[in-house]
Design goal:
The chain is mostly helical. 82% of the residues lie in helices and 0% in strands. It contains 3 helices and no strands. The model has no long low-confidence stretch (mean pLDDT 89).
Length: 71
C-alpha cells in the first residue's frame, strides 16, 4: 500500500522550498498537482509521471548549487 500522506508531506515541503531557489515557475505547478493527487489517493502512476517531469529540473538545480559551493 502506498503512503499517500508521506508523499503529500514530502511534496509539500519541496513545494515550499523551490521558491527559495527561483524554481517555482518551472516546478511549482507540477508539485501542486502531485500534492492534490496524493491527497485524493490517486494512482501512484499519475504522481510518478509528474515526478519524472520535475526530477531533471531538481537534478540540474543541485548541479548548479554544487558549482556555487565549489567557488
Amino acid at each position: 500500500k502506498q503512503d499517500y500522506k508521506q508523499i503529500y508531506k514530502t511534496v509539500h515541503a519541496l513545494r515550499n522550498t523551490v521558491g527559495l531557489f527561483g524554481l517555482s515557475s518551472s516546478i511549482g505547478n507540477p508539485l501542486l498537482e502531485m500534492e492534490k493527487l496524493a491527497l485524493a489517493n490517486e494512482k501512484v502512476e499519475n504522481i510518478q509521471q509528474l515526478h519524472n517531469k520535475v526530477l531533471p529540473l531538481f537534478e540540474e538545480a543541485v548541479r548548479e548549487l554544487e558549482l556555487f559551493k565549489d567557488n
